[in-house]
Design a protein that fits this description.
Number of strands: 7
Helix content: 25-40%
Strand content: 15-25%
Strand order of the largest sheet: 3-2-1-4
């Protein structure tokens, strides 16, 4: 609840319309947020994206549609605050700030933009998004990200960084996270 309230307050401070959403997540009571970007609303859960102690920054619940949030076991209460309609994916995090994998045989077209952004922000987490299952994603990451001679690997090294190999790649549903050093 505190995370959602603080997020709403910070949005208010910078002129972004946001509201709290009450309901259940994984069967227990929970509060998350809805935010208006442009003229469209998106759901996000800053509590569940808390970085924790491993130093990785997670964006799994950032700017989702209501259906995507429901698929992650977030169900708003029928009573209480009116939940805005959240159907747009225009500002979905995974489309702009993650390697957006649409084709499991090709390098994401946005990889240079995303890596440049991650490095420029001092970020240490490279986020990869795909609708593929985790086994398919592990194969993809092994070949297209860590594979010797991969375009992504070459580009990261050209920036003076390396990516660390983590056996599980921090796969969380549709998202995978890789550490940049």
């Amino acid at each position: 609840e505190g995370y959602a309230e603080l997020f709403q307050y910070l949005c208010y401070c910078v002129g972004i319309n946001a509201t709290q959403v009450t309901g259940t997540a994984n069967g227990g009571p929970h509060m998350w947020s809805a935010v208006c970007l442009g003229s469209e609303w998106y759901m996000l859960d800053v509590t569940w994206d808390d970085s924790g102690t491993d130093g990785m920054h997670y964006y799994t619940y950032f700017n989702l549609t209501a259906n995507e949030m429901a698929a992650e076991n977030h169900n708003p209460d029928a009573a209480g605050l009116r939940v805005p309609s959240c159907t747009s994916t225009e500002f979905a995090f995974y489309k702009h700030f993650a390697l957006y994998v649409e084709n499991l045989t090709a390098v994401p077209s946005n990889y240079k933009k995303v890596i440049d952004y991650v490095v420029s922000q001092g970020e240490k987490t490279l986020c990869i998004y795909s609708e593929a299952g985790s086994g398919e994603m592990q194969n993809y990451i092994s070949k297209q990200i860590f594979g010797s001679g991969s375009e992504v690997q070459k580009y990261i090294k050209s920036k003076g960084y390396n990516i660390s190999f983590e056996p599980q790649y921090y796969i969380l549903g549709k998202y995978s996270y890789i550490r940049i050093k």
